[in-house]
Amino acid sequence: MMMRMMMLISGGSIVSAEAVWDHVTMADRELAFKAGDVIKVLDASNKDWWWGQIDDEEGWFPASFVRLWVNQEESTMVETVEGASPSPSEVQNGHAEASPSSSDCLCLGQTVQNRDQMRANVINEIMSTERHYIKHLKDICEGYFRQCKKRRDMFNDDQLRVIFGNIEDIYRFQMGFVRDLEKQYNTEEPHLSEIGPCFLEHQDGFWIYSEYCNNHVDACMELSRLMKDGRYQHFFEACRLVQQMIDIAIDGFLLTPVQKICKYPLQLAELLKYTVQEHSDYRYVAAALAVMRNVTQQINERKRRLENIDKIAQWQASVLDWEGDDILDRSTELVYTGEMSWIYQPYGRSQTRVFFLFDHQMVLCKKDLIRRDILYYKGRMDMDRYNLVDAVDGRDDDFNVSVKNAFKLSNKDSDEIHIFLAKKLEEKLRWLKAFHEERKMVQEDEKIGFEISEYQKRQAAMTVRRMTKQKGHRSVPPGYPPPMDPMNPGQYLVGDGMEQSEFEFPEPERCKSPFWQSFSRLTPFRK
Q1: Cβ neighbourhood burial of 87 (10 Å; 0-12, 13-18, 19+)
Q2: 247-272 in b/e burial notation, b at 16+ Cβ within 10 A?
Q3: CA 213, CA 307: separation in Å to the nearest integer?
Q4: What predicted TM-score, i.e. pTM, was given to this entire model?
Q5: pLDDT tens digit string along 24-55?
Q6: Closest residue by Cα to residue 238 from 226, 250, 228
Q7: Phi and psi at residue 139, in whole multiples of 5°?
Q8: N or C, which terminus of the chain has less Cβ within 10 Å?
Q9: How is 322-380 classified by DSSP, letter by letter?
Q10: Dist. CA 31–CA 54, nearest whole Å
């Protein structure tokens, strides 16, 4: 069919395709597009990479990222030369196969493929992309990574870890996954294949992509730095030629795992669309789709958190009299912040503090008496060692004081108790919600082994030092989106004395507020 398509193109037919997925380009000659874009196919002689045009831009793009539409119910996506006689054809996502009775033209208005054939097409596409993906992973591991490890004069262990991350772990996992897919693949009648269980059996393994995706930005930065040296350009190009890889730069190959994990929910959604409820694979595909959507959602969430670590390090640098370990040694997210009264046994004296709740720890700060925008470090609490206890309004037996809008943190290993008093009931409920979110976040991180690498910590520290040097004084963190109001999803919270409103990203320029209020505008509560 590839030859048939080329005959159409060379004969003057306009062959168009619709992008099913976004294509992020890494090489100069690639064509970037978003899902839904219409691409004019100019050359389909290579079964994996086609040459196409969008408006005035031309370039290479992966055939598996598009589909040719020939049905009236979808859209007028393939046009023929005037006067050409129409004939039926069957088109797969990215690869077309015409029936024996078809002419050299792809035409519109033909009968819609039956559901079984459509399901077979999606199954075949999944199997095809998996096999090609395995080859890409093999090329990265054997063509690049293995050769880089031999050149100790050019790459140290830290550089290799940053550039390639856990690519070998992904390669091993993916080979096992594809072996199981092949066992479930029905070559004679692909529509009868039951691949849903494979995704469910391997669902925990897909979490290894989180580490790779989180590291990818650092990998691009390191490669960009190395590529300024001509030696590295020639070395990577030599590796590509020896391994006989397609003409894409190394950063393009390293992007494929990021694209792949994001593609699974789209493929499974397409498969579920053409799977009848009576099919034995239906409930497994539906469950697999939910699992893979959750995986990609959590990966995106953790990537967002890593993008905030510079701001956390910058905030710590702005707090005076800091003592002990850095925040980033244990934490990656500011969950909630606010000002409350606090009583701690055995002292029993009420004090006003500004509290910053991170995952694993809560930092206590005191405002400067004159400069209210300056904070002093006054300690921290290890949240892994405390239980949250709600307190009813009235006389508290532990502290022998009257309390209102209060809650307690009780040490699991001792009689130590802290009581916190919010100004309003709504604020107390927000804090209770925040502590719940903090524990949930910690459990999810432990499940997938999420943590900040030493390289990322060093980069954050370097960023803070550079910004501090440029300003010539203490660094002031930039504004953040505010935490989402747990009592009213969709609304956001700001510091005391500021109106509540909805925020849009990016945040517009505005006068600087006290930095502890700016830092409170962090990530919204997750629903």
Answers
A1: middle
A2: ebbbbbbbbbbbebbbbbbbbbebbb
A3: 12
A4: 0.59
A5: 765 667 888 887 788 988 888 777 788 889 98
A6: 250
A7: -65, -40
A8: C
A9: --SS-GGGT---EEEEEEEEEEETTT---EEEEEEEESSEEEEEEE-SS-TT-EEEEEE
A10: 8
